[in-house]
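Incident log, support desk, overnight shift.

02:14 A customer reports that sequence design results differ from what the structure should imply. Their input is reproduced verbatim below. On-call engineer (initials T.W.) acknowledged and began investigating.
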């Protein structure tokens, strides 16, 4: 059996009056769609800085890929909304990721997925138990 796979060509807007097809453009991946939707939701719902929202969305996508493949945009946004101990978006996001990680018995360290990451006061990530 021979299977032929072709890539979809997507229109790319160059200027207000010129459109061309980018031969290299592929359809967005599921992760890219997830990141985009998460970033947009963070800006809309929590008035997050767009750069911080993008970074958080990237970390959330990594968490989804490595820890919880079933994590949805809605579940993540709800978790951030529920983390109302903090006003600042970054703290709320980190708290939510910590809670989501705690709910997964295989995730023993949520720091790679938090905006704060590993800080000077944190344990050395290269030293394991």
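02:41 Re-run completed on a clean worker. Output:
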């Amino acid at each position: 059996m021979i299977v032929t796979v072709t890539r979809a060509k997507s229109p790319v807007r160059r200027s207000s009056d010129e459109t061309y097809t980018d031969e290299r453009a592929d359809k967005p991946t599921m992760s890219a769609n997830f990141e985009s939707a998460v970033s947009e939701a963070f800006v809309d719902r929590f008035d997050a800085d767009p750069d911080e929202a993008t970074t958080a969305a990237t970390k959330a996508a990594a968490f989804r890929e490595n820890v919880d493949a079933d994590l949805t945009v809605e579940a993540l946004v709800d978790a951030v909304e529920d983390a109302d101990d903090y006003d600042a978006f970054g703290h709320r996001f980190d708290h939510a990721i910590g809670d989501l990680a705690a709910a997964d018995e295989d995730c023993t360290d949520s720091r790679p997925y938090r905006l704060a990451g590993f800080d000077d006061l944190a344990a050395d990530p290269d030293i394991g138990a």
